[in-house]
């Protein structure tokens, strides 16, 4: 294990298991036979799923072409239109009146969109984008709050074969700029603002600032009016959504695109400063997203009300808010705001109001709700809930048990789903009618997915020995590369272990063969289920004139999983600057976005380095987590840690 890795610590050994309730198992969508069928003939299994769950314009000829590994082609020769699969075909099947989206705005405004209405809105948006010159292969940046137009925009791009790049609304102008530049976007879709914690929060100024930073490829900016706040408008470039999309024709004939046509790029943090543009394509992505959504959440589209609390700015919002639920014809809730606005019972109020049956959220939100107290959810009728999902980071057994007891009424199965931006769709998870679940473990690979836990040499590990999680066979929704950087794709994921995909996560298998995740083994942090790169935040810090050097670590945090803690060495000319730590926090917020703001900034005079000059973050993590500092013998100067601790004592 790398010297600088997080230290693969074992979670508590957990022996409790919860078999699926009998009535649940009897009615379940997925049975144990799925594993057997996938085992017998993996490719035939996926081909069958692709044909059953997706409507192809032209059927595919070959299930997998792996001849140019690690660049995969799935469902070769097939053509399809993703938007047709997500809306039109449900209307054609007579389900046009089914609700696709129950939208709940943070201020309490609501909007209901049936599949028939969604089809019209997506068609209008597609016609409008086409009138702005957007065609198949063009890139469109989407920078929107959680409003129906976010989903509509994504589907409108998919309908035209334009590749979208959604940028999280919480990211700064700088982050938006670098993403627009990297993807060479032609159009940006944004809003005047969205509602956040009871107030309108502007978005459009960040787009203006991003586009002012350099000459870009952006020709038009389409602006949704959400809050009605004063918004600067560049008449030659900006257009209001309601003036362009609303009057557009609701007739649009979807064209089929190749199964490997690029559907979207989504940027995610890696171990270097520059975010990676993860590329996903069409047929394989939609197949695995739809398959996992149906089977892991036990989806019965005629009855269920599904709610995924993720933002469309993350992969969960792409796969399990936009594409899979709509491809499966589900009815879902889309909520704009935060869980505690205007009060801490807001989520549970929404569950009660819409009789949500399937809830998909993150451990950080569960832990926050747990901290706020049982009496809050207990005020609401949550009896409609029958499946609970978790994603984003390992869920600790305590939070798992609370989720089950207080939210799930001690009976709803919990599915702890492991996957990544890169994997596109779920990879490891229980099946709710089949698996006896275990608090804290994501358990086993889904049917058709082959994973393992291996040691440094790529040899399989068992019996609770910590190692690395790898994927051993290509899977339909796998990333097809990093936008514009094929070499980085190979280096990052395929060079650590011969012929295997290296996920960057530590894991162990218990005596039953169930997988337990142990956190990242690289310099990637996980804050509230969001991936942040230590290097990216360090670069932001050293770009401030007061900072000479910086080291960032993710320290364990009760609510957010990890919290960003920064150690900085100030330039002597700034050593006495008043309020410098707060200024540095704000600076990071501006450079990357508020989620990246360090929780603590600690000023030190030295940083612990190895003889080769590599910062030993492990030791800094010990300090940040108030632990005794571990083995420091490989430091170039072993007195540094004493010095740092002395510094901090003086400072506090
Ligand atoms: C990383 C991927 C997948 C959508 C959300 C995050 C961690 C994710 C789990 C889980 C343990 C998990 C891993 C992974 N992770 N889900 N159920 N148990 N760890 O997507 O930003 O691409 O981050 O999140 O470390 O590598 P992402």
TrEMBL record:
Catalytic function, reaction form: acetate + ATP + CoA = acetyl-CoA + AMP + diphosphate
AMP-binding enzyme C-terminal domain ranges (all copies): 536-614
Origin superkingdom: Bacteria
One of the GO BP terms on file: acetyl-CoA biosynthetic process from acetate
Binding site for CoA: 196-199, 316, 528
Family the UniProt entry places it in: Belongs to the ATP-dependent AMP-binding enzyme family.
Entry function: Catalyzes the conversion of acetate into acetyl-CoA (AcCoA), an essential intermediate at the junction of anabolic and catabolic pathways. AcsA undergoes a two-step reaction. In the first half reaction, AcsA combines acetate with ATP to form acetyl-adenylate (AcAMP) intermediate. In the second half reaction, it can then transfer the acetyl group from AcAMP to the sulfhydryl group of CoA, forming the product AcCoA.
Protein known as: Acetyl-coenzyme A synthetase
Gene: acsA
């Amino acid at each position: 294990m790398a010297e600088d890795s997080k230290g693969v610590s074992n979670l508590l050994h957990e022996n409790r298991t919860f078999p699926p309730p009998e009535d649940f198992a009897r009615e379940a969508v997925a049975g144990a036979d799925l594993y057997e069928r996938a085992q017998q003939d993996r490719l035939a299994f996926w081909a069958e799923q692709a044909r059953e769950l997706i409507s192809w314009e032209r059927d595919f000829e070959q299930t997998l072409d792996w001849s140019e590994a690690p660049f995969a082609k799935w469902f070769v020769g097939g053509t399809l239109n993703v938007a047709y699969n997500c809306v039109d075909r449900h209307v054609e099947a007579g389900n046009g009146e089914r609700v696709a989206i129950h939208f709940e705005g943070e201020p309490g405004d609501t909007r209901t969109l049936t599949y028939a209405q969604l089809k019209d809105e997506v068609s209008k948006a597609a016609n409008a984008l086409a009138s702005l010159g957007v065609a198949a292969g063009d890139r469109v940046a989407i920078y929107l709050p959680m409003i129906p137009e976010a989903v509509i925009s994504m589907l409108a791009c998919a309908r035209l074969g334009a590749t979208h790049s959604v940028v999280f609304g919480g990211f700064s102008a700088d982050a938006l700029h670098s993403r627009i530049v990297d993807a060479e976007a032609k159009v940006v879709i944004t809003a005047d603002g969205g509602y956040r914690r009871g107030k309108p929060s502007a978005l459009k100024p960040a787009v203006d600032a991003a586009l002012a930073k350099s000459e870009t490829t952006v020709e038009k900016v389409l602006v949704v009016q959400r809050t009605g706040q004063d918004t600067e408008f560049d008449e030659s470039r900006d257009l209001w959504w309601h003036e362009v999309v609303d009057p557009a024709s609701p007739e649009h004939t979807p064209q089929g695109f190749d199964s490997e046509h690029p559907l979207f790029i989504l940027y995610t943090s890696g171990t270097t400063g520059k975010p990676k543009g993860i590329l996903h394509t069409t047929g394989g992505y939609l197949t695995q997203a739809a398959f996992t959504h149906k089977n892991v959440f036990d989806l019965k589209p005629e009855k269920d009300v599904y709610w995924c609390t993720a933002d469309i700015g993350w992969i969960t919002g792409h796969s399990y808010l936009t594409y899979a639920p709509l491809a499966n014809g589900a009815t879902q809730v889309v909520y704009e705001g935060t869980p505690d606005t205007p009060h801490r019972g807001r989520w549970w109020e929404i569950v009660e109001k819409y009789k949500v049956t399937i809830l998909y959220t993150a451990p950080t939100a569960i832990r926050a709700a747990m901290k706020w107290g049982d009496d809050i959810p207990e005020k609401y009728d949550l009896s409609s809930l029958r499946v609970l999902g978790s994603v984003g980071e390992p869920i600790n057994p305590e939070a798992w048990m609370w989720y089950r007891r207080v939210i799930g009424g001690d009976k709803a199965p919990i599915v702890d789903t492991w996957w990544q931006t890169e994997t596109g769709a779920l990879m490891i998870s229980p099946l709710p009618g089949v698996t006896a679940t275990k608090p804290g473990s994501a358990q086993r690979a889904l049917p058709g997915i082959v994973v393992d836990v291996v040691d440094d040499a790529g040899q399989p590990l068992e019996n609770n020995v910590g190692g690395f999680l790898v994927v051993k066979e290509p899977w339909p929704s796998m990333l097809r590369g990093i936008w514009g950087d094929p070499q980085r794709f190979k280096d990052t994921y395929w060079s650590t272990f011969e012929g295997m995909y290296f996920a960057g996560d530590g894991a162990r298998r218990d005596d039953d063969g169930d997988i337990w995740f142990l956190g990242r083994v690289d310099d990637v942090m996980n804050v509230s289920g969001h991936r942040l790169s230590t290097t990216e935040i360090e670069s932001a810090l050293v770009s401030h004139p007061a900072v000479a050097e910086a080291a960032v670590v993710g320290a364990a945090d009760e609510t957010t999983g990890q919290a960003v803690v920064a150690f900085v060495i100030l330039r002597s000319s700034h050593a006495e600057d008043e309020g410098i730590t707060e200024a540095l926090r704000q600076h990071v917020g501006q450079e990357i976005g508020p989620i990246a703001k360090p929780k603590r900034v600690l000023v030190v005079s030295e940083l612990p380095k190895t003889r080769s000059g590599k910062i030993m973050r492990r030791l800094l993590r010990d300090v940040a987590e108030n632990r005794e500092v571990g083995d420091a013998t490989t430091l170039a100067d072993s007195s540094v840690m004493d010095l740092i601790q002395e510094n901090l004592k003086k400072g506090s």
